Structures are given as C-alpha cells and as structure tokens.
Fold this protein.
Amino acid sequence: MILVTREIGDAETDEKEETQKNAPDLPPEYCHYRDEGCEYAESCLRCPFPQCLYDEPRGRQRWLKELRNREINRLFTGGWGVRELAGMFGVSQRTIQRALRSTPMALTSKQSEEPDKH
C-alpha cells in the first residue's frame, strides 16, 4: 500500500501549474509587455548596450568594474601614482595594479617615462 501525503496548499499549486501548462504561447503582438527600462535606459528598446546587463550573471558589476578600470588607467597615464589612485577609489594598491595589468599599455607607457635609477 502506497500512501501519498500532501500539504494543505498543494492542491492550489497543482491547479495553477496545470493551467499554465495548458495556456497557449501567445505571439508578441498579443502580449501586453510594459517596457520600463532600467537605471541605464528609460526603455529596453533604447538601451545603449548590445545585450542587457541583467541577462548575464554579474553583468552590471562587470560593466562597472570595467568602467572603473578604464578610469584608473586614464589617470595613471596622466601621472597619478598607484598609492594616490588607491586612496581615490577606496581600494587597495594591489587592486590598482590588477586594473593596470588589464591594460598593459598604461603600465608600459608609465615605466618608459620614469628615468632609470641605476
């Protein structure tokens, strides 16, 4: 003999799942979609990004980090030091070095400007 146990709310959940399985997949012109956009664009159709930042895992975080790293590289090539940049961005000196390593041109151009200390 097999006993099946259910929670009190399971019957309602099963009914919802059955109606969703049987619901037709409507073409886009019959769906009511509200394009609310996000903090970067007022609507998805006017988004400046080729792919939505929220479609990729940590997409927004990755984009912000790349933006920060580009700014670090720009300031470093403009004459700022690693210690000053670390204080400005609120990160460690090692993080600044990693950001500079992501764009090798910035690091090599800064080293070529410094005179040899021999």
